[in-house]
Structures
1.
Amino acid sequence: MKQQPGNTRNDDRQVAAVRDLLHAYATRGVLREFEERSMRNSKTEYQFTWLLDRRFHLIFDPGASQLTLRDLLPGIPTNSPLDLAVREFVAARTSKQLLAHRRIDPAKATLTVSHSRSALSFVFTVKRNQYAYAVPKLLNFCNELFAFLDMYHIQYLWEHMGVPEE
Amino acid sequence: MGEIASSHTSLFAMTVFGGMGFQPMRTRRWTPQDKLENRAMSQKRTSKTSETKRVNESRRDFIKTAALGAGFSALAGGAATAAAPDVPGRPIARPKPFEEISAAPVKEFAFPATGGDIFAQVCKEEGLAALFCCPGNYEIVSALANAGIPSYGGRNEGSMCSAADAFIRVTGEVAATSGTEGPGFTNMICAIAAANACRTPLLVLASNMTLRGDDTERGIQRGYQQPMTEGIKKYGKRVVTKERVHEYAGYAFRQLKTGVPGPVHLDFVSEATGRESEIASATDLDAYWGRGQYRTDSRPHPDPKDIDRALDLIKQAKRPLIVASTGVFYSKAWDALKAFAEKAQIPVAESGPMRGHFSDAHALSASAAPNAMFSVDLAILVGQYCMPGLGEYPFDINCKYIRIDPNAGDIGRNIPIDIGIVSCEKAALEALAAKSPAMNHDAWIAEVAAAREAFEKENDEHYALGKSYTDAVHPAVISTELANFLYKGKLAPEQTTIASGGFGIGRYTRRRLRAFRPGQICNGAYQYGSIGPDVGYTLGVGVAKDLGIGAQKPYQGGPVIGITGDAGFAYSAFEIETMAKYKIPGIVIVYNNNAWGTWSGYSRMPRAGHMHLFQENLRYDKIAEALGGYGEYVTSPDGFTPALERCWQIAVNERKPSVINCQAKKEFWIQRDFPPGMLGKVEPGVMAYNH
Ligand SMILES: Cc1ncc(C[n+]2csc(CCOP(=O)(O)OP(=O)(O)O)c2C)c(N)n1
Ligand SMILES: [Mg+2]
């Protein structure tokens, strides 16, 4: 990828690191139709098809060390029961009761939820460039989030995520 | 699946039917003692309260009674009389022919013979375990029945096809279904498709008029059948030449008994198998050679190098999981699986259209541990014929995969593999067990155990919620109390075989039902997801248990349980009558929420919502009674267990099927009003039915 105006060399290195990590999953066939697109403010968007055959939009902001899964869950009004349930689920990911391989370690990355136009985005703020830790964690978080929705909020998946009612 | 499969060797050890071992049902002689016992049992049934009391027998007494019931072969006659008549003098009763079948002679095969008889003879030599049909395809079904193959006539070809599918899925043995040309055959399509998703070695038979009249539209019911099963069979053939009937029977069994199984569809024109199809002697047939010549029981064994590579990968894994699926069951690899899992200390989760090939009671069982699935870093998929896509099993993103499958052509489909092993599942597991060093995965096993505990706790919470809804029967009440009755009461937990179906209710009952031995659970319509076959499945499971075939042999006799929704019940409900007339004691639990389970998504659409609704408070229990069965209508949570106990007692004592009509309400699927609402699933494991 060409260097964009305003990009620092450090940004480039980080973008490359994230790309390499994601690309390894794409090469293996885990993530499909992998695409990368430069955005303004030295951000990069990675797009790929993954769970439930949906298109994922992962925005990387190297300046803020943030990986954002943009508009991952549409159709969830603020403070609706599902909004609260998802937030509770997210908060529980850092619980000390979780085993290390399942926990998001706040010393390495934090996860927050943001809301816009009834869609939930998930923001991973990565500490000290620990992308090798953060990228698989983020993907595993998605895995668990989608399974959580399937297990307890299947109606939502039917109505908003294109899952067939069978 | 449409093309002819490569000729992998047999997965089917001929344990039950080997040589002359097969005894068709009804060969057991009646003794006067049987009659006395039976009469005594039929007199036992009095009021509902006294029946409830009788359930409180000791387990030993119960098992004795159940086994005694099993001894009365379905058609042996003399069993307890039918339901109390609604109209005096007109009882619902089995006519005399049902009492006479056991005494009727089995026809010995001899030339000259018709194509139908020749076909039946191959089926008999191959140990075809049962036939489920409706009238039609007369030459073939008569020949099969006359040859002594246990045969059942039902009310709808589709449901009977489902019965055959379920029978195979809990026995591991090949069975047939049959229907008449045109309509009988096309009624079976949905059920064949479900069997295909399940990879069931199902022999689908149908007549097909005459070759001579092809394309004329003379008479009725002419048509080409094979294109209609395109994509839903392993192999198919229209048999048109009487000299080649034997040869094509060989084609059929080669496909049914080797490699990855699947439905085989044969249709017969009258020239090949009808009355005019007589063949004078064996030398007039093409390719007339025996089972040992037209197919082999040899199975592909793994390359030792692949086993070494697999073990190297396993040694590197922290949290490996064996996913034991369809092929483990059909290759009868449960002992090898257990040996390998124990030696390498690897947890096992089941998937597939049947359950029980790895006991849920085993300390290494991960089937009821959904929260552990996300941690898996190496998945060993054994006999996973119906493959998930990546992400459908929510293992760690860095998870590696080993696949063990007899069909090299499938390894690498859907999920990128790290190691593929082309082998019969049993042979591969035996090799792994033999070569594996003792390993230690204590931390991982503890994680699985904690996940199991958390899952049970969550189920208990659902039950507490369910019981708090007192004006209707919540699915958590049904699933929990059914499980308590089957596994925590007086029954031996491994005794009862279950047709675990239903849509919304299935999402609750799967969480609670457990399998402790091979073939204990037939997993509904599985990946095909059809609503409706459940009563057919219950019949098939009930017949398998009654005859004690294959994996059901050690548990022969006694009641079986079926689970369905109110929408599902309607499709195959009339097979209650089939169960009643053959004295198959299936207890069908109907979750009656007055609606198709899809209603909740359309409840706010006034012009569309009604399509998902039924009349309320329908009496499915009365349908059972009208068909010669027994019915219970349960309207509050405290009524479920007593009703189940009464049905059980009647099943044991009178061998009568029953329906427990559980009055629920459609709003139970709306989470905000009635938590936990409609549930989903995590696969693999007890909840799995997509794969
Ligand atoms: C033959 C068939 N028709 C339609 C569907 C689509 N479908 C899936 S679930 C469902 C509702 C099933 O209702 P019911 O069995 O009563 O389940 P419950 O109300 O307990 O959820 C429908 C229509 C299907 N899977 N199969
Ligand atoms: Mg319903």
2.
Amino acid sequence: MSYFVNERGYYGDFGGAYIPEMLYPNVEELRQQYLGIINEPSFQEEFKALLKDYVGRPSPLYLAKRLSEKYGANIFLKREDLNHTGAHKINNTIGQILLAESLGKKRIIAETGAGQHGVATATVCALRGLECVVYMGEIDIKRQAPNVARMKMLGAKVVPATSGSKTLKDATNEAMRDWINNPVDTHYIIGSVVGPHPYPDMVSIFQSVISEETKKQLIEQTGKDQPDYVMACVGGGSNAAGMFYHFIDDENVKLIAVEAAGKGVASGLSAATTYLGKEGVLHGSRSILMQTPDGQVVEPHSVSAGLDYPGIGPQHAHLFKTGRVKYVSITDDESLDAGLLLTQLEGIIPAIESAHALAYLEYMEFKGGENVVVCLSGRGDKDMETYMKHFNL
Amino acid sequence: MNRLQQLFQNKKKDILSIYYTAGYPNLNDTLKIAQALEASGADFMEIGFPYSDPVADGEVIQGSSKQALDNGMTLEILFDQLKDLRKIVTIPILLMGYVNVVLQYGVANFCEKCQEVGVDGCIIPDLPMYEYEEMYHTCFAEHGISNIFLVTPQTSEERIRKIDGLSNAFIYLLSSAATTGKNLDVSTTARDYFARIQAMNLSNPLMIGFGISDKKTFDSANEYASGAIIGSAFVKSLNENDVEGSVKTFMKQFRG
Ligand SMILES: Cc1ncc(COP(=O)(O)O)c(C=O)c1O
């Protein structure tokens, strides 16, 4: 069985390109060219150089000793939080900005939820001198004020999405509408492994550096490249896709994806897509999404803006359906507690998104000595206000 | 031959189609509007079934879709409202909406229901051509439903030929690559594009849509196609307290 995309743009039953004709030429151009461009030696050279010198890669694989003691297993944290701009998102935006340049595009658009992808996009646009417009839900603009300021300082125009739930899903709609209305000079940098083919595959390729490095680091630190568990949080699923990429075909490695349960999967305020969702089409691909029986997309909820999305990427839908990856969920409160715990045991304040992955350690049973890799997808600076409110800091 | 195909056989110019969203302004306005449109001279109409995330639509149709959903509209309710359609409306009817709503309803169910209530075709902008061709074409054909494809200024000639081969009623020519509700661009580039498509001698007639808002833009579209489709401008003109009256007023400029 293949867990990767086939030549038609599908992962099993999922994927494809469900887009209106207005987007077809742009998406088709990308589909025809992305692999050729990415595989060019000059592209690889520039991509790797920027990841090293600008992003600060390889990110460390850190054995969290006190956390390991608490849980009775060797917990390794893949430190994407130490990347420039504070999350894994920049791996993708570096890749896509180079690709956009190869395609001769002059204007960049993006959607953002937590603001991390928006900041990562605004950053690479500043770096390369390209115009940048970021769509962000009106509600997210309020709860992620520091990131909005960073994007503005970086020269991006931040446009509020005021339709629907005014969060990530609606920002994505607005970005797609912008692309429809600017069909020639614009490249849309999607921030996760969602969207029409080839986006899910392209973004996962750029994020696969996470697991590529992890394997090397595991050999150095444990003597083998296969841990017992690999874990990551899932919004659209890009840090998880990158964290899983080189482990997917290692069937002995158990993969765990952690979704946001919000106030609880049965509360009506949740973003646990695999639990609450059904197969359907959202944002250009066939996947699993939260929807009514009539096919209307249900508005999700999570304390973490980056996980507040009603779908998951098509590869995740396939990994879920085939059972290759176990999908679980963690509530708002559990994630905040896990964030505090990591802060106090290891001196690392994680993004609330990443704290969801950490929180699942509480539910795992270890015999002792297992090697567990958790993707620490981002740092918690952007979430200080939420932490402060919740813990009365 | 369905009503739509008949229409295009009998009428070659000045065809006017109106789009509106089912369930807007009020949940039960769907048939009222259809009847008023026929009475005031529309040649056919497109009834939109609303979707929560209409990426191809501008603000007006986003707004009418949201209102329709808030009013409780679903595809199931729409088919129920259309039960008596053919007792009161004779002109061709298309349904227009996004693929997820059709998938949840079930494509086979959808085709069956369309035929049952007397719908002649549909426009599903985010249904990929390959999927239609491989999975749904037969089902649509069996139920006499014409699937309408869109063409933009960026659509390649090769693809337009393919679309022409898969179409059996008309081809929907977008005035520009844009979301709905923008104004018609009658610049020389648009004229060049319309003329280019006209010169391809396609086997299907052309209808121009997106950005047609009044008599003037309707007339200029008519120079290059069998007619034109009006959506946002019509939806915007609907008065929830006098739906029939507002339809009449809007239509006067075309069929005065
Ligand atoms: C730190 C962090 N982790 C995770 C996510 C979720 O996105 P994805 O599932 O694509 O990794 C985000 C999104 O903004 C994020 O900022």
